[in-house]
Each structure stands twice: as C-alpha cells, then as structure tokens.
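Quarterly update from the structural biology core.
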Amino acid sequence: MEGDEPEYVEAVVQREGKIIFVGSKEEAFKQFEGKAQKHDLNGETMMPGFIEPHAHPVSIGAFILGNDIVAPHEWRMPHKTYPAATNHEEYIQGLKNIVKESKEKDYVLVWGYHQAWHGALTKEDLNSVTNTIPLLIFHRSGHEFYLNDVAMEKYGVDTDKFESKDQINPKNNHFWERGFQELKTKFISPVYADKERISLGLKRMSQMMLQNGITAMTEPSFPNSEFHSEYDLLKSETENYAYAKYYLIPGFPEQFTLKMSNEDFHAYIQKMSQYNTENIEFLTDQFKSFSDGAIYSLALQLKDGFANCPHCHAEWIIPPDMHKPLFDFYWDKGYKLHFHVTGDKGLEVVLDMLEDAQKRNPRENHQTTMHHLGLFDEAQAQRMKDLGAEASVNSYYLWALGNKYGEIGFGKERAARMTGMKWLTDRDIPTSVHSDFAMAPAEPLTLAWVAATRVTDNGTVKRPDLKVSVFDAMKAITISAARTFSKENEIGSIKEGKQATFTILKENPFEVDAMHIKDIKVQGVVYKGNFKVNKANNLKK
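Predicted structure, tokenized:
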C-alpha cells in the first residue's frame, strides 16, 4: 500500500511480531522451509491491518454500545440492529419502546437524536416518554445532551452553576459544546463512570473491531471525561482482547475540565507514557484541539452561513481569540497538532493560525492534521498543501448528510461537495478516512467505499468528479491512516521491519466493482503474528 498503485507479493514471513521477509513464494520456501509454520490464503486477500485513525472507543463508542440507539439511519451493532427513526413520531415511539424494555435500569440513555430528521426536542417530549425514570438523550453529534426533569433532579443539575451560559438552555434541559463538557464533569459523571455498562460496551467494541478488520485505533483527545475511569476500563479490555492497539492523543477536553494552564498540561502530557502497555500507547508529542461546532448539530461555522435553517446556530468550541494562544503554545513546543474542523470558516481560522505560526516560527514536516473536513473548497485544499497541512476526513458525512443537508443547512451545491477528498489526494496531501465512532460506523471498508463512490443514503451519487481512486481510498485506511498519527514507519504497509499485523479479506478490493467494496467479508486479522478468526465468516487457517 505504498507508492502509486497496488503492489503484490506472494509470501510474507514474520518472527516475534515483526515482518522479516516479503517476496516470492519460491524464495520464502528456500529460506524458511522447515523453520516456519505455513498459512495458505487459498485465494483470499491479505492487506495491512486496517487502521481507524480517529475514534472514541470509551467515552463515546463504549458509552453508546453499552446503552441504546434511536437514530435517523439503521445501526447494525454486534449485539443488535437498531431500526431507523426518520421523523419525530418514530423517534418518540422508539424512546418509549426502549424505556418499556428498561424497567430494571436506574436510568435510560439513548444516542442518535438529530433535529433535521426528528424535529425539535423539548423537555416536555422527554417527560411524556417517562416521568419516573431518568432519561438522558445523547445527540447524534456526540456534542449535546437533553435530560428529562427526573434526570435533572437525580443528578442535581443546577444551571446557575454553569460557566458556559451561552451554550446551555435551562428552559429545555439542553446542553451543548462547552456546556455539555460542564454537564459531563460536574453533574452526570456517574453515568460516564458506569463501569458495568461501559465494560459491556467495550466488549462489543472489540467484537466490532474484529468484524471490521480493525487492528489499530487512535483516539484524539483522550480522555473525554475522567482519565482513570476511562483508562482503567480500556486497559482491562485490551487484556481480554489483545488483537488491536490503541494510540491515545491528549488534548483540549481534559485540559479544559482540569482547568490547567498550557505549561502545566504540557508537563502532565509528558508523564503519560507511564501508562503505556503492550496494546496502549500515549502519543506524548501530539495534541488535539477544536475549532468550530459539530456538523451533526448544524453548529459548524460556514463562510456563507446556513441555508433554509432558521434554528441553526454556528458555534465555536474554542473561540478564535482563545484558540490562538493555545495553538501557538503547542506549536512552539514542537507538538504534532490535530484539529477538529467541520465547516469551511472553521478551517479558515485554523489555516490562518497555521500560516501565522509558520511565519513566526517555521517548522518543516510538522504534519498538522485537519480532522473531519465536512465542508471545504478547492482553494482551501491548495492552501493546506502550501502550508504543509494533512487531512483525516469523515467520508461518511456525505452518505449520511448529503441529501438532508441539501434541504436543511447547506443547500444543494454545498451539500453535494461535502468531504471533497479528491481535492486533497490530487495535491498529494496525505489523507486518511475515519469514523469518529460513533459519528460513523467503525467500518473501514464502508468509509473507503463512500470515498470511492460518493454514494448517499438514498443511493444517489453526489459530485462524481470528486470520487477518489480505489487505491487512494484503501490507502486512507492503511498507510495514510498510519501517517495521521505518525506511525507510518511501524504499521500500514507490508514491509520488512514493520509489524506483522494484517487484515484478511474474502475478496480483493482492487478486483471487484467499487460499489461492492463495503460488502467484502472480513475473514479475520493477524495481530503481531497471531491469528484471530472472525468466526461469523468461517475463516480456516
């Protein structure tokens, strides 16, 4: 998966988790006959292990997988398939069904609400679902919460004690962005520390990773709530399921909740390597920050504003005047910087800061990476190239939002060019794709499929001129994904000296129609030389 086109080899030999030979079958047998255990692919395809370069396995992923889902699209999870709820009535009925099934629980938490499908959500709606059980609604964006009155009372939520008054709505029990961060840490932290539910969610996360061939997952801005509660649960799960590695990047949410100065948080980051294990690694030379609001909340910053959306409200997670000192501090310390940017105005602000930093304190090969990139234009892609910026795109935005946001929020022209990856790959900007799980399914082949086909949820294709090649789409889940967090010299391709970690597929993605890529079966994974079979697909080794 390096270079400009697929390159094939007949044989790979590993020893103690490292690749020691890549080449012809004849030469492999000549050197290693009688010295190695043989595994025949029998016509199946082995690729570098699939990489998820931006997800949230504990605080969002396991949090959701340990609770329930009512969302605009169907969600196929390891334990259950949740049907789509496409309007307000279906959404409220979905909540009632879950509450009815949850009588033994001391609270009900449901992820997936989105106003563009489900309409306005009021506390009266939630109180009508149940006025006896605490009900917490986690927005589809992962950046907002709604509570019924019983939940407000149970967790002692006092809106007078919030610092982020502009990002809460006390009349509707609604909290977003920094208000959401305060709600998490000051009031509903027991929900985020529910070990039983999150442990269950992490087990399901491991099942999902195997099913989808994921052998490495990076979480930018770990933790999202409290360090030890998240770390301890993740560590425990990696001891149970030892077929993938987690790379963790510290960032703004923890610094904000700990109320640490830049200097103090920098010192704190440098001590995180003490928590490294065989399957967990803290990247202490990297930092994750945030620009504009969530795309799923229609709270992103757009240069030309919103279309047909009077209720939309552009937000800054970190306002630009607060953001620049943060940017400059970590830039000057030599960190590799990662930025959550969803709208073109949000991107423009970060590019301005990057340009200023390069003039003031030039750095080569800084690999500053823009994450998500829901909406940007070709001129901004060129500016990223000129400034040495790189990209990790949530390609699924187009599939999930391309049609709805053509009606509400973006307008048809902007919605059609969402996640324009080809503008990046045409400029040789290293570009990965990610799920930001659970903002998209943690399915690398699905993310690659959307990038290569630009198919949306109703089957239509948006801006086919912006399709990337299948090779670039597959690079985006292997070698380019490894580069997103600076591990391209260890994983992401099949090369002597690299980790012997692979994903085994039933079919070759370069030999099937691009429309079929998402349906290729994952037969199993090899992690550091050890096989893990996806039993559902009957791999025989």
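Residues 11-51+502-511+518-537 form one domain.
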